[in-house]
Design a protein that fits this description.
This protein is α/β, with parallel strands linked by helices. It has a single domain, classed as Alpha-Beta Barrel (TIM Barrel). Helix content is about 40%, strand content about 15%. The strands form 4 sheets. An 8-stranded parallel barrel has the order 1-2-3-4-9-10-11-14, surrounded by 4 helices. Helix 8 links the parallel strand 10 and strand 11. Helix 13 crosses helix 14. The radius of gyration is 21 Å and the shape is globular. It starts with 9 loop residues before the first strand and ends in a 7-residue tail after the last helix. The N terminus is likely disordered. The protein binds flavin mononucleotide. Flavin mononucleotide binds next to strand 3, helix 7 and helix 11. Flavin mononucleotide (FMN) binds next to strand 3, helix 7 and helix 11.
Length: about 450
């Protein structure tokens, strides 16, 4: 078994192309910039993350402006909550590709509302333009509001969503393999631009898709983009264990994170995979300062800028349950949620352990329920190593409390501490995201 000397922490930055990324008070913080509609804002963030040797920037996404709390858009728009505004991740990340050379770029794309050809083509394009740095966060989506933007009355059932996702991913893999790696010849004299014997249709006919192929983009530098997933239901965990090379989780205690970690690695083994090829990244919202006291002051100010309704509004759409009819001063009863199981499990655990009212849950959810990663650079790095060594995770999805200051602080104060502890790289050893993460390049 590898030790913490050889095992290295993987770092992804969770950056929303919208008002908040980790903390619902983020956009109201005095030094937060409001440049989120400007390409240079994201390019600068990319450069800073690359200077901090991050593995990747991860961009979440949803396909609707949520109106789940009280059947109204108001709470999202008023509070600039998590779903209030989202730019298209593929476009933003492709722009960042041009201003960076090592940083991995992870786009969230739903298998429920797009087509495999379109997604395979876009991601192959991004992988080429970034010279092997593309990743795909494969989501099945979870809200009826999203379905209604794509001509449906309601979303498919969870089982149907995952069945469609299985076939979707299978088809995209066939499309990326419809060109051999050596198909492009560029032979002026022959002439032979590409060798027809190295490019073939896929002729896929399935339950959900009929796709002739081949793709009109050559095989991506990484063979295929890195696969990321965040399903937490039983079905979601199996899907992740079968396909994902990075799994994004949120937990409110180290014990539940350890249990998930052991479970997912075991599931990966059952699918015949090497568990080391599956990296579990834990979501954290670090508030960092030069000293623990400075970080505490920053945290207090940030927290004061988050209204409980902002967190409840986001929780409502993430669970796909209207939380407005429930008494705010009482504990949330057990629910059967159609939305994200991972978020429900996290909130149910918090409610049970701390006997929090729904209003308190709204506040805690809005400010990030896991409060273990605040303090000076050395405090935060020590805590990260503790979770990493305890095999609660292989790395972290760092949800920046505000932008761009959250990135600056983390890179300036935490990264050097992780490097001193020899649990994080001093520099990139390779150029592609697969190389950063120690992942195999899929054979043709
Ligand atoms: C930490 C975390 C982050 C997620 N991010 C997104 C996202 O950006 N977009 C999205 O559509 N779904 C997102 N999801 C939802 C999942 O990818 C998945 O589609 C959903 O949870 C339904 O699967 P489940 O029932 O197995 O949980 C996220 C889930 C978790 C736990």
């Amino acid at each position: 078994m590898s030790t913490s000397l050889s095992r290295q922490i993987k770092l992804a930055a969770y950056v929303m192309a919208g008002p908040v990324s980790g903390h619902h008070g983020g956009w109201r913080y005095p030094s937060a910039q409001h440049d989120i509609l400007n390409v240079r804002f994201y390019q600068d963030l990319g450069r800073q993350l690359e200077a901090g040797k991050f593995d990747m920037m991860f961009m979440p996404d949803i396909q609707a402006l949520p109106r789940r709390l009280g059947d109204s858009l108001d709470s999202q728009l008023k509070h600039g909550a998590l779903g209030a505004l989202r730019l298209d991740p593929l476009l933003v990340l492709t722009a960042i590709a041009g201003s960076t050379s090592r940083l991995g770029l992870a786009a969230t794309i739903s298998t429920s509302y797009f087509s495999p050809f379109q997604v395979a083509r876009s991601l192959a394009t991004m992988d080429h333009l970034s010279a092997g740095r593309a990743a795909w966060n494969i989501v099945t989506s979870f809200q009826d509001a999203e379905a209604r933007n794509y001509g449906l009355k309601e979303q498919l059932s969870r089982d149907e969503r995952y069945a469609r996702a299985e076939e979707f991913v299978d088809v995209t893999c066939k499309l990326w393999n419809s060109w051999h790696d050596d198909a492009l010849k560029w032979d002026r004299a022959a002439p032979q631009f590409a060798d027809p014997s190295r490019v073939a249709p896929i002729d896929h006919h399935g339950k959900w898709f009929d796709v002739a192929g081949p793709l009109n983009v050559s095989r991506p530098p990484q063979g295929r983009p890195v696969f990321i997933q965040a399903g937490a239901s039983d079905r979601g965990r199996d899907f992740a264990a079968k396909w994902a090379e990075v799994i994004f989780v949120t937990h409110s205690s180290i014990e539940s994170a350890q249990a998930f970690y052991a479970d997912i690695k075991e599931r990966a083994r059952k699918f015949g995979r090497d568990p080391d090829q599956v990296n579990v990244l834990l979501g954290m919202v670090p508030v960092v300062g030069e000293t623990d006291a400075i970080a505490r002051d920053t945290q207090a100010l940030l927290d004061s800028l988050c209204e409980p309704e902002a967190g409840l509004s986001t929780l409502s759409y993430q669970l796909d349950v209207d939380l407005s009819p429930f008494p705010q001063d009482e504990v949330l009863p057990d629910l059967d949620v159609a939305g994200v199981q991972g978020h429900y499990r996290e909130v149910a655990e918090l409610t049970r352990k701390q006997n929090l009212s729904l209003r308190d849950i709204g506040k805690r959810y809005g400010i990030g329920p896991l409060r273990d990663f605040n303090g000076s650079g050395s405090t935060v790095a020590a805590r990260m190593q503790e979770w990493f060594d305890a095999r609660a995770c292989d790395g972290f999805m760092v949800q920046m409390p505000y932008l761009p200051g959250g990135v600056e602080d983390f890179v300036r104060l935490v990264v050097p501490e992780l490097q001193t502890r020899r649990v994080f790289r001093e520099d990139y050893a390779g150029t592609t995201l697969r190389e950063h993460l120690g992942l195999d390049r899929p054979a043709h």
